[in-house]
């Protein structure tokens, strides 16, 4: 299996590259600058400059794009649209590192995590923009996408336990009543989905056991 990890130099991207390589997959890191991952194969190119030809030989493309400043937050939508457009109509699967703010907290799917009174104001613009990108992705029937949301507490430096619970559209709590996962365990869930391809055109989520 040939996998391209776009924006591989980010914290999530690097761990996804590492996890995939540890499992013997053929991994290419797509980076704008110097490669800081363990991947030996590299495409040095900005995400927005990628073409269909750049990605045509891959089975799976993993989108680890992230934007945090007010002026770049809309790029969650524009970057995902660009990747969808160049993969449109192909058999290549697109897996997206998503956000938790858009997870639902009720069975009717009318309320989301980011709607809660305890949701930090500083994260609302990020959650809103990522949620908008997911809504736009749902409208794409021409791409074999999967959107993977982490738990509400997404810990960059958390331990790798090797265990997680796979959830769906709703916020899932573990046996301790927590919604938490490390980037390392999230990477395991991402690579598991890359290998299995069981949730095409679905949003799934992952929480630590």
TrEMBL record:
- InterPro entries noted in UniProt: NAD(P)-bd_dom, NAD(P)-bd_dom_sf, Polyketide_Oxido-like
- Gene3D superfamilies hit by this protein: NAD(P)-binding Rossmann-like Domain
Q: Which residues form a coiled coil?
A: none
NAD(P)-binding domain mapped to chain residues: 8-193
User: Which CDD domains does the UniProt entry name for this protein?
Assistant: BVR-B_like_SDR_a
Any GO molecular function: oxidoreductase activity, acting on the CH-NH group of donors, NAD or NADP as acceptor
**Do you know which PANTHER family this protein is assigned to?**
FLAVIN REDUCTASE (NADPH)
Q: What is this protein called?
A: NAD(P)-dependent oxidoreductase
- The record lists the organism as Christensenella massiliensis
């Amino acid at each position: 299996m040939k996998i391209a990890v776009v924006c591989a130099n980010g914290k999530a991207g690097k761990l996804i590259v590492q996890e995939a390589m540890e499992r013997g997959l053929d991994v290419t890191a797509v980076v704008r600058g110097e490669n800081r991952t363990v991947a030996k194969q590299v495409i040095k190119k900005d995400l927005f400059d990628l073409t269909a030809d750049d990605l045509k030989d891959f089975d799976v493309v993993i989108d680890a794009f992230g934007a945090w400043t007010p002026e770049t937050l809309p790029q969650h939508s524009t970057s995902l649209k660009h990747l969808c457009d160049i993969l449109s109509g192909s058999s290549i699967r697109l897996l997206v590192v998503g956000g938790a703010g858009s997870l639902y907290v009720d069975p009717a799917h009318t309320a989301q995590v980011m709607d809660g009174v305890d949701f930090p104001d500083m994260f609302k613009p990020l959650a809103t923009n990522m949620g908008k990108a997911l809504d736009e992705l749902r409208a794409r029937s021409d791409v074999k996408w999967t959107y993977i949301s982490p738990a509400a507490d997404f810990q960059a430096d958390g331990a790798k336990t090797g265990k997680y619970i796979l959830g769906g559209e709703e916020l899932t709590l573990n046996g301790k009543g927590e919604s938490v996962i490390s980037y390392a365990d999230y990477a395991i869930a991402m690579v598991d989905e890359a290998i299995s391809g069981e949730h095409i055109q679905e949003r799934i989520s992952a929480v630590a056991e």
